[in-house]
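Narrative summary of target 7.
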Amino acid sequence: MTSPADHLPTLRSGRWFAALPADLAQALMARAELRSLAPAQALFLRGDAPCGLYAVVRGAIDISGVGGQSDKARASLLTRLEAPAWFGEIALFDGSVRTHDAHAATQATLLHVPQEPLLAHLARHPQHWHALALLLTDKLRTALVAMEEMALLPAPQRVARRLALMAEGYGQWTDAGRSRRVIALSQEELSLMLALSRQTINQILKDLQARGLLQVHRGEIEVCDLLALRAAGG
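Modeled conformation, tokenized:
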């Protein structure tokens, strides 16, 4: 297994880590431990005690939940986190239990900064809470926009907009022009993410494919025209 320092180029490709005060970035790296997860392996589950801050440096992590009565329980996929995303900060602030499940969507490598050493550092350097608050508020902005889209946008626009955002790394890269051509996401996973039926997702993707905006492959969506896909999202 590599060392946390080997993943610094990946971390620095993300806006949040790249903008950190140097002493906070060094403190995170000094306390970081590497974790490796197999596909579908749980990192933590809803109700688990807080365990610290994480960064995805390879692979992907799904944040999901299940709700409703046991005989009618419904699953939801809130988001898929890929490098260089950081997560887990909510429980750092309130010390309460995990709000959702986190599983590896693929073989994944994470940096883990344990809760207690990080809290001890923040007690000695309270000015560093501000940077962590920015990580939290960025997630809040994204969540509020997603809620608004769920309420106001028709399904085709929601699908196009979400795929464009995923292709652009949710705007988290330091290089604003960077994008990924292939999104590792199945139609079933996209339906869970957007609370749409599998049939509806299939119909919308077929239409986008017929217009030359993307190609649908098994377990993947290839973006052929990102500008047009973004425009289709309104």
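The chain has a mean pLDDT of 94.
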